[in-house]
Specification:
about 110 residues, Brnchd-chn_aa_trnsp_AzlD, single chain, membrane, 5 helices, elongated, mainly alpha, transmembrane, transmembrane helix
C-alpha cells in the first residue's frame, strides 16, 4: 500500500510539473495566476523555517540563547547585504555550528 501511494504521489508531482514546463503544450497561465503563484515559494519556505527557528524545543523560544534565532538573523542580514545565496548559506551554517557546539552548549 505504501509503495502504491509513493507511485501515485510521484505520478501526480511529475504530471503537474510536466504540464507547466513542456513548451509544446498549449497550457498558459494568465498574469494574475502567475502573480498569485509567485507567493507560494516564500509561503512554503516560511512554513518550513519559522517553526524550526522560533520553536526548536516545541515551545516558543525568543531568548538570546537560541542558536537557531541567531543563525537566522545572521542569514537574513547577509542575504540582505550581499544577495548571495551560497555565501549566506555557508556563513549562517558556520554561525549556527559555532553557537550550537561551543557558545550555547550545556
Amino acid at each position: 500500500m505504501i509503495f502504491i501511494s509513493i507511485l501515485a504521489m510521484t505520478a501526480l508531482v511529475f504530471l503537474s510539473r510536466y504540464l507547466f514546463l513542456e513548451p509544446q503544450l498549449p497550457l498558459r497561465l494568465n498574469a494574475q495566476t502567475q502573480r498569485l503563484l509567485s507567493y507560494s515559494s516564500p509561503a512554503v519556505l516560511t512554513a518550513i523555517w519559522a517553526p524550526i527557528v522560533f520553536m526548536p524545543d516545541n515551545e516558543l523560544s525568543l531568548s538570546g540563547s537560541n542558536p537557531y534565532l541567531w543563525a537566522a538573523l545572521t542569514a537574513a542580514l547577509i542575504a540582505w547585504k550581499t544577495k548571495n545565496v551560497l555565501l549566506t548559506t555557508i556563513i549562517s551554517m558556520i554561525v549556527f555550528l559555532v553557537l550550537n557546539l561551543w557558545v550555547f552548549s550545556a
